[in-house]
């Protein structure tokens, strides 16, 4: 009568074991096994099944509530502090703010980056606070359904459209603020809610937009063109995405929104020298 040899751990040949990895079947000692949902797996199988760093980042991004909204707010707050530190003032009237703000002749001369950087220039703490507060309210509602990519795209398109509107109405004024982007995503949220059966006056953001536009008529130093342009850009980008989703072609929605942004960019360049 012969006795079957006792299995030894595949990593520690000097250690006898009666256990095996439920995934690869190799014998392993308790030190080399990790408890799993069913049985136990060896350390190598656990490492092989672990998600890559890129995948972990994607999972964290998907699981985070309104991550794009937080990033946009973080960028605006950080830039406000940086500009204030460099200029030594918080009213946005320093040289750094002036070099980043929207200004038609400068854009016409090649400073097209101002179409984007103007959105992070704010004229005082209250200007920043109210823009970011509304952005957070809209983003908390809209981004979980749209996803961070679509939300970010709508915001950027609205910023460009807002810049186009501001340059059309007041090309020689120094203009700054995230209002174009904020009005754009607020308009997007209004459309989405309306399409889901919510009455316009019950959306919250729709009435807020109208009230702000009416107040703009009686306020100075407010870019009405920037607000209206942002709304138009946000509406067009959102409509492109909604129609593409109906057709089960979500990529076309992204392309349509990008097309709106590209059109706004070209309009900016065309009217900057007016």
Structure description:
The chain is mainly alpha-helical and 274 residues long. The chain has 2 domains: 13-50, no CATH class; 66-271, Rhomboid-like fold (Up-down Bundle). Helix content is 63%, strand content 2%. The protein is built from 12 helices and 2 strands; from the N terminus they run ββαααααααααααα. It has helices at 43-49, 53-63, 67-87, 95-100, 104-108, 114-117, 125-146, 148-169, 179-195, 205-216, 224-246, 250-271, and strands at residues 33-35, 40-42. A two-stranded antiparallel ribbon has the order 1-2. Helix 8 packs across helix 9 and helix 8 (148-169) packs parallel to helix 12. The longest helix is centred in the last third of the chain and has 23 residues, at 224-246. The chain is elongated. The chain starts with 32 loop residues before the first strand and ends with a helix. The model has no long low-confidence stretch (mean pLDDT 90).
């Amino acid at each position: 009568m012969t006795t079957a040899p006792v299995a030894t751990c595949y990593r520690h040949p000097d250690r006898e074991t009666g256990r095996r990895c439920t995934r690869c079947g190799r014998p392993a000692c308790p030190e080399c096994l990790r408890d799993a949902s069913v049985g136990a797996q060896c350390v190598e199988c656990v490492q092989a099944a672990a998600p890559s760093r890129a995948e972990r980042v994607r999972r964290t991004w998907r699981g985070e509530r309104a991550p794009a909204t937080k990033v946009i707010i973080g960028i605006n707050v950080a830039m406000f502090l940086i500009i204030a530190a460099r200029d030594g003032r918080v009213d946005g009237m320093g040289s750094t703010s002036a070099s980043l703000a929207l200004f038609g002749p400068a854009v016409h001369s090649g400073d097209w980056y101002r179409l984007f950087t103007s959105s992070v220039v704010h004229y005082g703490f209250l200007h920043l606070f109210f823009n970011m507060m509304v952005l957070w309210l809209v983003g908390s509602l809209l981004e979980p359904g749209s996803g961070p990519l679509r939300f970010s795209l709508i915001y950027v398109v609205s910023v460009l459209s807002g810049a186009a509107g501001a340059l059309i109405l007041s090309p020689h004024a120094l203009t700054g603020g995230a209002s174009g982007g904020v009005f754009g995503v607020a308009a997007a949220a209004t459309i989405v809610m309306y399409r889901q059966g919510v009455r316009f006056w019950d959306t919250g953001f729709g009435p807020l937009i109208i009230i702000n536009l009416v107040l703009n008529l009686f306020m100075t130093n407010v870019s009405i063109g920037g607000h209206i342009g942002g709304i138009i850009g946000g509406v067009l980008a959102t409509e492109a995405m909604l129609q593409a989703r109906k057709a089960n072609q979500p990529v076309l929605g992204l392309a349509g929104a990008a097309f709106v942004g590209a059109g706004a960019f070209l309009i900016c360049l065309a009217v900057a020298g007016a």
